[in-house]
């Protein structure tokens, strides 16, 4: 609490020095349709999700082996790129 | 082109096809670079779509092009705006020039890193050589790496690439503003524009050149921000092409560039343009814009032996011309500059470079031009302002020889009377060939107060300002202007009254100067009988002789570092001793010789005293600090100076002293050397007062020295914390500031309290306006630049010590430099008005 107050003070005094905290990501559920979420192994398998590179949704999974590529394509994902470290790119095209 | 066999291009990646029109980047979607396909990749290795040679691979690894044996050229560009990643996330697997087979891996990339750090992964495959093609897959949908994707029909004969041979026009060198160099996007814009001209057009970076109509060739130059580029063109519309492309490059080729390029803005309503004073004085005259003629350089030679002979002849002729200029130079500064130019002609790297190009069948003009441009660019990029200014010297020498090769008569300018020259930059050669009877002053956009042009202007006694906004180049020839170099101002619409006053003042000045020179032998004694010693600031034996002829009573500052400025190695002890003895011998036992020990440092490097570059050389190892760091250098110099003991009244002066311990250490070394030489009497030892700490502690220093000499230039910049060469601050970094004057006052009081004398050897002593104030503050000696000795002596003779003391008290209490100058001007007017009565 004190730290927050101090920060606000600093911000008021030196607007250039304290960066705006980045706005939080848009609501998670809007990004992934239920069918997509289930083809990724369900909400429990999902660590993070993020829109990247104009055409992709990047997700980090607990267990990447649970990915059902056919299910993803059926759910409207154009292509899937499985990368190291549980990272998967879902190519959804230009919005 | 010998074949019309269709060629299949393989998909370089697995991924999702996207029509080119939909790519969210207009450079690609507009097909500016070329037509092709876009793939959103699902694999991480880019493979060759066809067999051929890697015609270009960017250092940053995000783009590669392959050209097959029939000239079909395919560019692949991984991701959008990936040039900003500067190579991170990409691994190049092939080298430029390498032959590859279809399907061979070319670049590996980290798709996740790029997705997280760049705008997009969308990858382009474009047929940049322009052949038509048919898509072998559905326009959208998935493709596998290596699957046939496009069928290209090679064209029968290329229509547009007929090489226009002939004399090429070259643009002026320009500096590339684009943050990431000419990568695909700006390169495409440039190539597109170039294709609009019939002329064959080349873009040059140092010795490399590229067809400006070829996107890949431009990218192949691997340019970076700050590169010096030139555009050349040959053909009917060459001049128009150069003009258009230079403008485009300056504007960033469609990219926003941080530095507003040197587009010449129309002259605003402002009637005063400001710069930095390079040489004091003022003049009214008419504008003459100086533009170098464009030289036609043919790239191809007529055979190696004749071209080699042509270069050798031109180099010899240039060396002779420079020798002649050196011999008739009016001052040692000028002579030194032309001497340095002559040395550049013999520079082995430069010659090797030129001969290398001759061996490749290039013409003498092309080889020499390329070699000098490359060397000048090296100087410019060195990061050292001093070396950067030497780039102008290199360019000057380059032009001199080039004109000789091409048989171009060096412009003996047909100047009108009362010319005020305006140039982007005047070369030392141009400055030296000016007819001082016709030229009244000059103004340059480039250059600083340390540039050779500034030095030469001072030697010629012409007013000059530099660092003036580029708009000055747009002033039409013949425009009447008033150049007030003292204030660093150029007045565009001077009022007739002002001009008349100035003209009358100028005539008076001429008369006065003649009288002063005639009376130079008279002592500098004020009307109430107070003697001021007027001595000279010199840097060579020649200057000592000139100074004595102009009435100098001694040498108040011998800048010892200048004696060996052009040397690569330290002069031998014997040679040093001879030089000092020769100077002392000319002066004789009745005159003072004040030798300042080596005053070098990061800001004024000496070739044979190598030192690391410093982030802030003015606050680094300069002057005595450097000498104490390398005591052997100081010991040797002391020994050489002491060899002249007895020939003149020898004084040794230490520069940049800020601590008492520095003086103590130096004195110890001096005493040690004097003892070793068996001298019974030590020379006088003094220090420069140029650091505020020394001025403030002058009462502490005074018992340990024989004299002080105030270096007003450095004292001013250290007191006001303003760089004297800073284009914005130079006008405020004024030695007339009361803060500087108070330090002079403190120094003189402390010295006199201990019976020691004080001189001023900085530029302030050479300003007639400052003389009454300095005398009033009690300064005993004025050491001035050689040409000004007669006028400073004459000024002293017009003064009254009692008056000077009053004016000095008065100015110490003022608020700023401008007020001090104004007060002194009023005082001067009052004195001058009473003078004719005294004289006639």
Structure description:
- The complex is a heterodimer of chains A (95) and B (840).
- By secondary structure, chain A is of the alpha+beta class.
- Chain A is built from four helices and four strands; from the N terminus they run H-H-H-E-E-H-E-E.
- A four-stranded antiparallel sheet of chain A has the order 1-2-4-3.
- Chain B has five domains: 7-152, Glucose Permease (Domain IIA) (Distorted Sandwich), CATH 2.70.70.10; 168-250, Histidine-containing Protein, Chain: A; 272-293 and 412-510, 3-Layer(bba) Sandwich (Glucose Oxidase, domain 1); 296-406, PtsI, HPr-binding domain (Enzyme I, Chain A, domain 2); 522-839, TIM Barrel.
- Chain B has an eight-stranded antiparallel sheet with strand order 9-5-6-7-11-3-2-13.
- In chain B, a hairpin with a 5-residue loop joins strand 5 and strand 6.
- Chain B starts with 6 loop residues before the first strand and ends with a helix.
- The chains are: A alpha+beta (95), B alpha/beta (840).
- At the A-B interface, strand 3 and strand 4 of A face strand 2 and helix 2 of B.
Descriptive tags:
heterodimer; A: 95 residues; alpha+beta; Gyrase A, domain 2; 4-stranded antiparallel β-sheet; 4 helices; 4 strands; 23% strand; globular; disordered N terminus; B: 840 residues; alpha/beta; Glucose Permease (Domain IIA); Histidine-containing Protein, Chain: A; Glucose Oxidase, domain 1; 5 domains; 8-stranded antiparallel β-sheet; 26 helices; 38% helix; disordered C terminus
């Amino acid at each position: 609490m004190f730290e927050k107050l101090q920060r606000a003070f600093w911000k008021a005094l030196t607007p250039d020095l304290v960066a705006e905290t980045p706005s939080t990501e848009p609501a998670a559920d809007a990004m992934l349709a239920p069918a997509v979420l289930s083809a990724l192994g369900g909400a429990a398998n999902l660590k993070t999700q993020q829109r990247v590179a104009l055409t992709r949704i990047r997700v980090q999974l607990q267990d990447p082996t649970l990915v059902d590529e056919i299910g993803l394509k059926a759910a409207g994902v154009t292509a899937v790129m499985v990368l190291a470290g549980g990272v998967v790119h879902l190519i959804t095209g230009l919005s | 082109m010998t074949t019309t066999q269709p060629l299949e291009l393989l998909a370089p990646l697995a991924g999702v096809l996207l029509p080119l029109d939909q790519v969210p980047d207009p450079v690609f979607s507009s097909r500016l670079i070329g037509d092709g396909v876009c793939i959103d990749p699902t694999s991480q290795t880019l493979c060759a779509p066809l067999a051929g040679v890697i015609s270009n691979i960017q250092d940053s690894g995000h783009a590669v092009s392959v050209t097959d044996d029939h000239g079909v050229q395919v560019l692949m560009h991984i991701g959008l705006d990936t040039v900003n990643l500067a190579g991170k996330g990409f691994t190049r697997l092939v080298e430029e020039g390498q032959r590859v087979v279809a399907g061979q891996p070319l670049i590996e990339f980290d798709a996740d890193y790029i997705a997280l750090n760049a705008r997009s992964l969308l990858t382009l495959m474009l047929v940049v050589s322009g052949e038509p093609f048919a898509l072998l897959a559905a326009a959208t949908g998935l493709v596998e790496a290596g699957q046939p994707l496009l069928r290209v029909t090679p064209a029968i004969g290329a229509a547009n690439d007929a090489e226009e041979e002939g004399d090429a026009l070259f643009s002026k060198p320009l500096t590339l503003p684009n943050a990431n160099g000419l990568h695909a996007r700006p390169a495409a814009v440039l190539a597109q524009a170039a294709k609009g001209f019939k002329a064959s057009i080349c873009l040059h970076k140092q010795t490399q050149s590229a067809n400006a109509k070829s996107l890949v060739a431009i990218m192949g130059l691997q340019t970076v921000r700050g590169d010096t580029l030139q555009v050349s063109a040959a053909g009917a519309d060459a001049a128009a092409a150069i003009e258009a492309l230079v403008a485009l490059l300056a504007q960033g080729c469609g990219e926003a560039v941080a530095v507003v390029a040197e587009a010449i803005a129309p002259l605003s309503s402002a009637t005063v343009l400001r710069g930095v004073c390079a040489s004091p004085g003022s003049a009214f005259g008419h504008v003459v814009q100086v533009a170098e003629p464009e030289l036609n350089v043919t790239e191809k030679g007529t055979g190696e032996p004749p071209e080699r002979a042509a270069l050798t002849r031109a180099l010899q002729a240039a060396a002779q011309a420079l020798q002649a200029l050196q011999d008739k130079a009016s001052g040692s500064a000028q002579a030194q500059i032309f001497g340095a130019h002559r040395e550049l002609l013999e520079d082995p790297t430069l010659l090797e470079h030129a001969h290398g190009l001759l061996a490749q069948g290039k013409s003498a003009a092309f080889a020499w031009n390329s070699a000098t441009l490359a060397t000048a660019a090296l100087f410019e990029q060195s990061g050292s302002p001093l070396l950067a200014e030497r780039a102008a010297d290199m360019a000057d020498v380059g032009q001199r020889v080039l004109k000789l090769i091409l048989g171009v008569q060096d412009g003996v300018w047909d100047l009108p009377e009362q010319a005020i020259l305006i140039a982007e930059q005047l070369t030392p050669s141009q400055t030296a060939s000016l007819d001082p009877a016709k030229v009244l002053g000059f103004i340059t956009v480039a250059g600083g107060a340390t540039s050779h042009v500034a030095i030469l202007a001072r030697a010629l006694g012409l007013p000059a300002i530099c660092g003036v906004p580029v708009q000055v180049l747009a002033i039409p020839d013949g425009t009447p202007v008033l150049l007030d170099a003292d204030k660093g101002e150029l007045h565009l619409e001077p009022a007739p009254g002002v001009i008349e006053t100035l003209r009358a003042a100028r005539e008076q000045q001429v008369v006065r100067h003649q009288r002063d020179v005639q009376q130079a032998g008279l002592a500098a004694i004020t009307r109430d009988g107070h003697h001021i010693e007027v001595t000279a600031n010199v840097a060579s034996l020649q200057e000592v002789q000139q100074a004595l002829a102009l009435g100098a009573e001694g040498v108040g500052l011998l800048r010892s570092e200048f004696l060996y400025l052009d040397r690569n190695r330290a002069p031998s002890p014997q040679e040093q001793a001879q030089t000092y003895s020769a100077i002392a011998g000319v002066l004789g036992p009745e005159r003072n010789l004040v030798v300042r020990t080596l005053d070098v440092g990061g800001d004024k490097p000496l070739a044979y005293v190598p030192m690391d570059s410093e982030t802030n050389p003015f606050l680094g190892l300069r002057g005595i600090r450097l000498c104490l760091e390398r005591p052997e250098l100081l010991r040797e110099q002391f020994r050489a100076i002491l060899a002249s003991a007895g020939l003149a009244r020898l004084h040794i002066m230490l520069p940049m002293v800020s601590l008492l311990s520095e003086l103590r250490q130096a004195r110890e070394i001096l005493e040690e050397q004097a003892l070793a030489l068996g001298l019974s009497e030590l020379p006088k030892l003094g220090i420069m007062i140029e650091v505020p700490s020394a001025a403030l502690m002058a009462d502490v220093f005074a018992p340990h020295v024989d004299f002080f000499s105030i270096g007003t230039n450095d004292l001013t910049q250290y007191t006001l914390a303003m760089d004297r060469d800073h284009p914005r601050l130079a006008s405020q970094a004024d030695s007339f500031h009361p803060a500087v004057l108070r330090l002079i006052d403190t120094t003189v009081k402390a010295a006199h309290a201990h019976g020691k004398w004080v001189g001023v050897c900085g530029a302030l002593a050479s300003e007639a306006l400052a003389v009454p104030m300095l005398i009033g503050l009690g300064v005993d000696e004025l050491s001035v630049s050689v040409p000004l000795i007669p006028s400073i002596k004459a000024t002293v003779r017009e003064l009254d010590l009692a008056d000077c003391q009053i004016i000095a008290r008065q100015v110490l209490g003022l608020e700023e430099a401008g007020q001090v100058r104004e007060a002194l001007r009023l005082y001067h007017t009052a004195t001058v008005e009473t003078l004719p009565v005294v004289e006639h």
